[in-house]
Specification:
Length: about 180
């Protein structure tokens, strides 16, 4: 019978062995994002290892720990798992997270609340283009053409924190065929 891992322990980073056939990749930029999240929130998810200290889940977190120069990290030992169980979990751990979706309206509300709190949105893992797409989605959704052409003019005011964000929003809106003008205050 397989035992389910429960107890959090600590292990030396240098002793942990990445699974050589891990099919999930981690770019330097993504490892930097993980490292930034560890700096911001601490260690929130232990690395899953087997009895030989081979990593089953948490390769990116291990890479971030090395980047941060950490000596030890929290781990959970998956004792008694078969090789097939370990191999399958290496894949499942990554794929199951990808199968989730987003409630875009709630996401937009949360991101706007973080913006109002002057929180660094880069820590959420979204890049600037993704943030712009989510936060200003209602401005760029194409409308179905009406049977009769109607001439309308709408004025929308968008407040940006800095010039770079202003440029991204301007580019996004003009790419959608909207006429824009930039006002500085």
């Amino acid at each position: 019978m397989t035992r389910h891992p429960e107890k959090i322990e600590r292990r030396a980073v240098e002793k942990l062995i990445p699974y050589a056939r891990n099919s999930r990749t981690h770019s330097d930029a993504q490892v930097a994002q993980i490292a930034a999240s560890i700096k911001e929130w601490g260690w929130t998810t232990p690395i899953l290892i087997d009895e030989t200290e081979q990593v089953i889940a948490g390769h990116g977190r291990l890479m971030a720990a090395r980047k941060l120069g950490m000596a030890e990290v929290p781990v959970i030992v998956a004792a008694g798992w078969t090789d097939a169980q370990k191999r399958a979990y290496v894949i499942a751990d990554n794929k199951l997270a990808l199968n989730a979706g987003w409630d875009n309206e709630l996401l937009k509300l949360e991101l706007h609340a973080l913006t109002e709190a002057d929180y660094d949105l880069s820590l959420t893992g979204f890049d600037a283009d993704e943030l712009t797409d989510v936060m200003f989605a209602e401005l760029v959704e194409p409308k179905e053409p009406e049977e009769q052409a109607v001439s309308s003019t709408f004025e929308v005011s968008v407040s940006c924190d800095n010039e770079a964000e202003q440029e991204r929003v301007y580019e996004l809106l003009t790419k959608q065929g909207l006429k824009c003008r930039v006002l500085t205050m």
